[in-house]
Amino acid sequence: MRPSVAAALAARLVPAWERLRASPPLRGAFLFTVAALLVLAGSFVPNAEDSVIARAGRAAYDLQMRFLRDGFPRPLADDVVLVGIDDATEQAFPEPIALWHHHFAKLYRGLAAAQPRAVGIDIGLPERSFEGLVKGIDAPMMMWRHARRGVAWEG
């Protein structure tokens, strides 16, 4: 911009700004418009799912749920429990997962003792027996079967 154009623009904006500052209704409308534009921009930048407003909403929901769970716990009639095997679990046992018959049997006995309504298993168990390598390894897996009566097992 050339200095004369900038000076002319400033000369026109200063009185408008002073009029805006002096009038409470105009000032309120201006602040409301600025706030609305900021919220609108925050709702779509970078996109609707990852925007600042969406993240703030998810964080507020998480805080609310944490507060309710910690301050006002309520028992659930049909609570769902997920049991996972992560890398740390795999490192805790010296044998490979294909030889975890005793560990799985202990898990299954615990599940059967809890008397769940249903159990879903998403673990790739060995397709063949390792009884020839480790004597008695298949017995624990077979013993838990009697304890699972009355429970729907999916695997």
Walk me through what this model shows.
The chain is mostly helical. It folds into 2 domains: 3-71, no CATH class; 87-154, no CATH class. 55% of the residues lie in helices and 4% in strands. It contains 6 helices and 2 strands. The chain has helices at 3-22, 24-44, 52-71, 87-92, 101-114, 139-143, and strands spanning 118-120, 152-154. It has a two-stranded parallel sheet. Helix 6 (139-143) links the parallel strand 1 (118-120) and strand 2. Helix 1 (3-22) packs across helix 2. The longest helix is centred in the N-terminal third of the chain and has 21 residues, at 24-44. It starts with a helix and ends with a strand.
Q: How far apart are the termini?
A: 73 Å
Strand order of the largest sheet: 1-2
Q: Which geometry do the CA atoms define?
A: elongated
Biggest sheet statistics: 2 strands, parallel
What's the number of helices?
6
Report the β-strand fraction as a percent range: under 5%
Mean pLDDT metric: 80
SS-based structural class? mainly alpha
Question: Residue share in helices?
Answer: 55-70%
Low-confidence stretches: none
Count of folded domains: 2
**What is Rg?**
33 Å
Order of helices and strands: HHHHHEHE
β-strand number? 2
